Amino acid sequence: DAKTTQPTSMDCAEGRAANLPCNHSTISGNEYVYWYRQIHSQGPQYIIHGLKNNETNEMASLIITEDRKSSTLILPHATLRDTAVYYCIVISNFGNEKLTFGTGTRLTIIP
Amino acid sequence: KAGVTQTPRYLIKTRGQQVTLSCSPISGHRSVSWYQQTPGQGLQFLFEYFSETQRNKGNFPGRFSGRQFSNSRSEMNVSTLELGDSALYLCASTNPGTGALDTQYFGPGTRLTVL
Asked: B37 Cβ partners below 8 Å, 6+ apart?
């Protein structure tokens, strides 16, 4: 039962902002939106998470719609090292919850 | 603060052998989860340990086992290896109950190839 849907792949020019969308129309009130990315054959890297407010950290910004049914991860100035598969997941509590990644979005940064 | 470390990074074994993988969590993290990742099945949860006790277990056969030590380091063991056990094995650590959502941080993984 997929909780999120993401485009299969996206391209972005180096130096431009990469905007990765995610739909989570069945999200419940206590579920957070999390983003991870995975560079080929490496462990997933935590990027950012949010509940309902927009969030920003040193890696990215997360914009969550007011109805919380979708969100966008923004990498403000994409570099070649940002080429990876990006996973959007919704989760209520990590304590006893097992992570499940969908197919994610394969983001390719074009020089 | 050092991240999650896993050893070895790469491993080649033959069918029928057994293997032990090691994970050192981020300092202060008390929970360690193990995942198997394959191209066909994606990320699958194996088990989670907290304070040396297994708290959760996924749907894997008994050939897959684990343990956690008092310093929170964890090992997982796979006995009687099968070709289908070839995968990237990931360890993730977190510190439950700290008052914030318990973000899981992953290690680099161990790439296991079974011949």
From this structure: B43, B44, B87, B88, B89, B90, B109
Question: Do the beta carbons of residue A108 and residue A14 sit within 8 Å?
Answer: no
Of all residues in chain A, the one with the smallest CA distance to B42 is A101
Residue B3 has which token pair?
A: 């991240």
How far apart (Å, rounded) are the C-alpha atoms in residues A95 and B95? 9
CA distances from B105 to A7, A65, B75 (A): 25, 26, 17
How large is the C-alpha radius of gyration of chain B?
14
Task: Find tokens 């977190």 and name the residue.
Answer: B94
Question: Which residues in chain A are contacts of B92 at CB distance < 8 A?
Answer: 99
Identify the DSSP state of A5: B
> Do A75 and A60 form a contact (C-beta atoms < 8 A)?
yes
The partner residue sitting opposite A99, judged by closest CB among B6, B97, B104, is B104
Task: Report the distance separating Cα A59 and Cα A77, nearest Å.
Answer: 10
CA distance A19 to A61: 10
* Token pair of B39 as six digits: 């191209």
Partner A contacted by B34 (CB < 8 A): no
Which backbone phi and psi does A82 adopt, to 5 degrees? -85, -5
pLDDT values of chain B reduced to their tens digit, one per residue, 115 residues: 679 999 999 999 999 999 999 999 999 999 999 999 998 888 899 999 998 999 889 999 999 999 999 999 999 999 999 999 999 999 999 887 654 457 889 999 999 999 9
